[in-house]
Structure formats: C-alpha cells, structure tokens
C-alpha cells in the first residue's frame, strides 16, 4: 500500500482546481433541480423523481473531511447513521436504529454485498477519499434495485477521471492516537482517463480501552473512450480492515468516564475486493445502454463482543468466533429509450449474480472475572474453542432479476412513473453441522411502484408514490439449528419456514424555491408498513425460535431547509419526526415471562426527533477561509421493548475550520465541541433485573489536518 502512495506522489504534475469547484458548487447547491443518478440508474433531474432523495456534493464532502462515513451521511435529513466506533455502524432511515437488512448500500450503483449476506457494518469498507458525491434515496426503491432497498438506499459515487491533471495528498491526526495518510490523482490523456485514490489509517491507545484499529484502501478507475458514443469503464477497489471491538459498557463505567473494556480479545476483520467492467453506448440522443460485469471477493471474520452469553453470578460464559466469506460473479444490463409519445421514457434491465458463500461459527469458552457482589463482569478471558459448531455451511446464492420502468407526461407539468421488478433467489447448500446434508431453496418476489411528479413551475413541485419492498431472510438465520431438534433430523436443521419480509410504502412530498433560490425547502410525509418480519421467540426451555410473522408500522415527516441570505453565509436545517410501532409482534411462548407480545408498544431505539443543522461562513475579507458549526440532535427513546425505561437522547456540536493558501489547505475538526457525555446507543432487556448497556461517544476530539493540492500550471 505504501509503495502505491509513493508512486502516486510521483504523478504529482497535477492540480486540484478547488476554488473553481467550490464556487461552481455553491451555485448548484441551491438548486433543487440537480441531477440524480441513483433513482433509476440514469441521469435524471431531481424534480422528475417521485421519491425522496438527497445528494451530498463534492463540496460538502471536501469541507467535512470525514474520518468516518457517518460524519457525512448524518447531514441528510431523515437519516441517522449510528457510530459504533472505528467506522462500525448501525443505520436508521424510516426505521429505528437497526441492524436488519432493510438498507441497500451501493458503490457506483452496484450493491456492496450479494442478496442474503447483509452486514450492518458494510460501510467500513468505503474509501472516504475516493468519493465524489453520495446520494441517499429514502423509502423503498425495490422496483429498480430489488431486495433490501426498503428503509433507504445509499449510493457512494466515486471520482471520475479528471480532464486536467490533478493530484492531492493529505495527513490528519487527533489527540487520541488516530492518524491517516491519503493521496489521490488523475488525468485524461487522449482517449484514456484515470483516477486513483488511497488511504491508510491507524489508531493506537485511544480513549476507549481495547479499540485499536487500522485500515488500508485503494480505489482505481480507468475510462477508455472507444468512440465519442462508446466508453469502457473499469473500476477496482481493495480494502483491508482490522479492529479490536471493545463492546458496550455498563452504566457505572459510562458515567464515570472510565472507558474500560471487559474484553481485550474480541475483534472484527474485513478483507474486501470489488471490480467491474462497464461498456456504455449512446445510440442516439434518445437511446443508451450499458452492460456491467462485476466481481466481489469478501472475507469478514470476527470474535464479536455481542456474541458473549453470560448468566448473572456465573464465573463462566460462552462466546463465538465466526467467519462469513463470499465471492460474486455477475452481470447487470440496462437500456433506456425515450419516445416523443407523451414525452415518455422506458428503462428495461436485468441482473444475474452468482455468489458462493461460506460461513462457520465455533463456540468458545470464557472465564468471567466478576466484580464485587457477583452481579457484573469485570473482565472475560478467552479459554479457546470447545469443539461445538454453532453453524457451518457452504452455499451458492443465485439472484436473477428483471426490471422495467416507464415514465410519461400526461400534461406538461404532470409526470407518471410506473415500475416493476421480479427477483428470484436460488439457494443451494451443504450443511456441515451434525449429519452433512445438502438441498435447495427458492425465494421469489414481484415488487411494483407507482409515482407521480407535478411541477407547477421551476420553484414549486410535488410528488407522490406507492411502492413495495422486501428483504429475504439472511443465510445466517436460515442455517441456524432449530431448538429441541436432533442432529440426525435433516429437515429440522434449517428454517425453511422463513419468508421474505414485505413492506408497503405510501408517501407524498415536494419542494419550494424562494427568494431567487436563496431559500429552498423540501419535505416528505411517509407511511411504511412491514409484514412477515423476523421474530425471535423465547421457548419454554429458554431457547429461541425464528418465525416470519412480525408486523410493524413506521410513519413520519422529513424536512430540509437551505438558506443563503448572502454569498458568505449558509444555513442548513434538516430533520425528521417519526413514530415506529409494533403492530403484531410475539416475543415469548414461556408462560413465566411477563411479556409475550409487544403489540401496540413503541419500538426501542426509535427517537421521535432526529435533526442535523449547520451554519457555514465564507468571509469575503479572507478568501479561501471557511468555518462551520454543526448541531446533531437525537431525542429520547425507549431502551427496552416494553417501554419502561427511556434514554434522554443527546445533542452535541461539531466545529470545522479550514484555510487554503497557495495549494496548501489547513483544517481542524472539533468533534463534540463541548465535551458532552452521551451514548450513541443505549439498550436494555425487558426483565426488571436487566442492566442497560451503553455505546459511549468519544470525548471532545481535535482532528488536525493538512492537505496539499498541487497545480502545475501555477
């Protein structure tokens, strides 16, 4: 990796036209009619898309200088990406804070993971220095993207080759042992353009015990213009990540700010590679096609702290070591055709994805060293594997899909969009737990969407849609052994009864441009209902059993305001108010449990208000200087499922300052400006004796950085 960085530095006859980009982006930032590519895998004006979509521009990314992706994503109204430490994360988009497969993560329009192998930490693989923009689509877009595109779809769009030679290199570090080096460069020579970006980061002896980590990423894009209408695009990404996982802490440790860890042996390790080859052809001004072949190779291993099982008072416990690995080979093709009739547009496409997937989970024995009184654990010790296989399977996932979308104008200002997609997941497997058994399983689903846009003029517009979404059960659930079944009963080894979770969404929204685009306002009102969601039901013997029978309800309002009274000053206000509720949700068949059903309860970790706002200042009297204050707000939410204990939520401030002088940019990000004590997540079991656990936030952090943007022409 370091050799690559030195090679890139040699390319240094390049420029990063930062000031021009910043000035151009300020103008486009005020336009709600900006171009979006995620909604239908093609260039579309935002005012013609019948969904709620937000775009984080290159300027926003550059000025934020994020250490982790959540620092950018949380600037989107209606989105809360929860920091779990060292770039690990959970997500909340039209859902409570969730680890479920209800979010689709894309890199340049392709899913980061195959169907059935969702991981809520997938975005730790993203190279922050490679990003050109990020698009966030809220609500189901399954009619184009298929499974898991339910709560939200986030597309990380990497940098295209630059027309002029460009180069940039930067360093950043904080007072808690984190440091990162990053470098990027690109150019276009004749018919060939390229862009390369990489980073290497390292953290040692941070504020939280047992939280060291390191990450190395590189992204490459190569474009070849075969003809003025035909282009060949190649991209390559490789990333390696390793982190200790200190886990959550108890209440006493949290409030004392004694950020100790009960484990020094837990970890998460990721080795990811993705590559694609795309052939684009523009037949004429009304017709274009592309074909993409892609490959993924991913290894995710861990000794997770969340896998530890301990009974109060016991001096022993159990844990696990697991590894989830896959390779993908696939092809995606799409054709777009415009017609004069009703000013219509037809999109037709198909996908085939073949992903062999191997997984194992082995149980380990732990020694629990108890605190005084024996009611909590001071530290765990890893005693090694005990020979028990919790899971061990080999599977081949085949996802075959076809989709079609047709949009047309009934009148000049009224546009309808109709979309449908059919997905089939074919699963062949060999289960190695107990008697080795092989078999097949199929999941299929048709999803549809109806939407409309009514744009009264360029300053006032409305949209509405009715859409469906679904998520098949993850393979780690399907291959979990049913409780109270023998290893010799092949049919009892798998959860064949699990069905895809299905969602129906209805929403309306719109935008307003006022004061000659100095003031913009956009909003969305949604109602989302889920059925066949996965239930984990306690049995009379304390084991748990899966069922696809849960039903939930999600409704809310999202809004965003941008106001630039003068060119030097920019106000951004964004937020959402929502309610997430259990409708039909069973949690126990055990008669002694105080709660068997959760019908009517609010879902835990579901704040009613989430907001992120910012004021930025670009003084004329000091060109190339910027400063911003950002406010993050999360209201109170229930810690437990039965709504007995609430966490107070949190709000905090971040400050960012930067100054560029002759190609050198100096910046400081002060995260948690007032050094506030808060937790990103607080959870508690339903029993009165259960104790809350806290995912603590970092103390006030000073991130210092320098970046050099070299311009040969100057």
Automatic annotation (TrEMBL):
GO cellular component terms, semicolon-separated: cell outer membrane
CDD domains: ligand_gated_channel
Highest rank taxon of the organism: Bacteria
SUPFAM superfamilies: Porins
Membrane topology: Multi-pass membrane protein
Location of the protein in the cell: Cell outer membrane
Main location as per UniProt: membrane
Domain spans labelled TonB-dependent receptor plug: 46-153
This protein's UniProt keywords: Cell outer membrane, Ion transport, Iron, Iron transport, Membrane, Receptor, TonB box, Transmembrane, Transmembrane beta strand, Transport
UniProt-listed GO biological process terms: iron ion transport
Entry's family note: Belongs to the TonB-dependent receptor family.
Name of the protein in its database record: Outer membrane receptor proteins, mostly Fe transport
């Amino acid at each position: 990796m370091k050799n690559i960085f030195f090679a890139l530095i040699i390319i240094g006859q390049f420029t990063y036209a930062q000031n021009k980009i910043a000035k151009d982006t300020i103008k486009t930032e005020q336009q709600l009619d900006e171009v979006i590519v995620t909604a239908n895998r093609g260039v579309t004006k935002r005012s013609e898309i019948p969904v709620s979509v937000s775009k984080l521009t290159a300027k926003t990314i550059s000025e934020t200088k994020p250490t982790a992706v959540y620092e950018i994503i949380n600037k989107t109204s209606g989105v809360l990406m929860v920091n779990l430490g060292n770039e690990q994360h959970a997500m909340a988009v039209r859902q409570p804070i969730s680890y479920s497969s209800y979010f689709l993560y894309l890199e340049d329009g392709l899913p980061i993971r195959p169907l059935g192998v969702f991981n809520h930490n997938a975005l730790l693989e993203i190279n922050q220095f490679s990003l050109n923009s990020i698009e966030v689509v809220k609500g189901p877009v399954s009619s184009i993207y298929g499974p898991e595109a339910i709560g939200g779809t986030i597309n990380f769009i990497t940098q295209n080759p630059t027309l002029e030679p460009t180069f940039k290199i930067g360093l950043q570090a904080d007072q808690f042992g984190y440091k990162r080096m990053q470098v990027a460069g690109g150019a276009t020579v004749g018919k060939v353009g390229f862009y390369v970006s990489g980073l290497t980061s390292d953290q040692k002896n941070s504020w939280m015990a047992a939280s060291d980590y390191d990450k190395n990423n590189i992204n490459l894009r190569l474009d070849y213009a075969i003809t003025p209408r035909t282009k060949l695009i190649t991209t390559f990404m490789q990333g390696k990540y390793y982190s200790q996982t200190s886990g959550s802490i108890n209440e006493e440790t949290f409030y004392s700010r004694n950020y100790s860890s009960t484990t020094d042996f837990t970890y998460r390790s990721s080795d990811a590679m993705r590559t694609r080859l795309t052939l684009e052809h523009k037949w004429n001004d009304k017709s274009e096609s592309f074909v993409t072949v892609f490959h993924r190779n991913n290894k995710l291993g861990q000794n997770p702290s969340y896998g530890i099982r301990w009974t109060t008072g016991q001096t022993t416990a159990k844990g696990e070591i697991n590894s989830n690995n896959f390779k993908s080979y696939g092809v995606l093709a799409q054709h777009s055709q415009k017609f004069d009739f009703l000013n219509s547009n037809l999109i037709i496409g198909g996908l085939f994805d073949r992903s062999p997937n191997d997984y194992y989970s082995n149980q380990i024995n732990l020694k629990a060293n108890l605190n005084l009184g024996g009611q909590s654990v001071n530290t765990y010790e890893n005693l090694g594997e005990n020979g028990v296989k919790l899971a061990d399977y080999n599977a081949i996932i085949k996802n075959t899909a076809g989709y079609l979308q047709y949009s047309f104008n009934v009148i000049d200002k009224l546009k309808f969009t109709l979309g449908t997609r059919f997905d089939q997941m074919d699963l062949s497997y060999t289960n190695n737990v107990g008697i080795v058994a092989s078999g097949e399983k199929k999941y299929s689903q048709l999803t549809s969407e109806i939407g409309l846009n009514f744009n009264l003029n360029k300053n006032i517009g409305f949209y509405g849609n009715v859409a469906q979404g679904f998520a098949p059960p993850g393979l780690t659930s399907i291959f979990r052994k049913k409780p109270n079944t023998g290893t010799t009963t092949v049919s009892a080894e798998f959860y064949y009864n699990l069905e895809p979770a299905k969602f129906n969404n209805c929403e309306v929204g719109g935008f307003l441009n006022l004061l000659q685009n100095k003031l913009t306002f956009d909003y969305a009102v949604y109602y989302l209902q889920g059925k066949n969601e996965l239930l984990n039901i306690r049995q009379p013997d304390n084991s748990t059993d899966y069922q696809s029978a849960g039903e939930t309800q999600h409704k809310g309002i999202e809004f965003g305001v941008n106001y630039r009274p003068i060119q030097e000053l920019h106000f951004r206000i964004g937020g959402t108010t929502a309610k997430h509720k259990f409708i039909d949700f069973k949690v126990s068949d055990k008669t002694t449990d105080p709660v068997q059903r959760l019908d009517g309860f609010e879902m835990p970790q579901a704040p009613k208000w989430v907001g992120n706002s910012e004021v930025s200042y670009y003084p004329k009297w000091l060109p190339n200087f910027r400063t911003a204050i950002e406010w993050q707000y999360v209201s109170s939410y229930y810690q437990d499922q039965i709504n007995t204990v609430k966490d107070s939520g949190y709000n905090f401030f971040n400050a960012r300052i930067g100054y560029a002088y002759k190609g050198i940019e100096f910046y400081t990000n002060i995260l948690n400006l007032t050094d506030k004590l808060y937790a990103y997540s607080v959870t508690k079991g339903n029993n009165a004796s259960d104790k809350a656990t806290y995912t603590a936030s970092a103390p006030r952090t000073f991130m210092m950085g320098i970046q050099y943007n070299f311009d040969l022409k100057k």
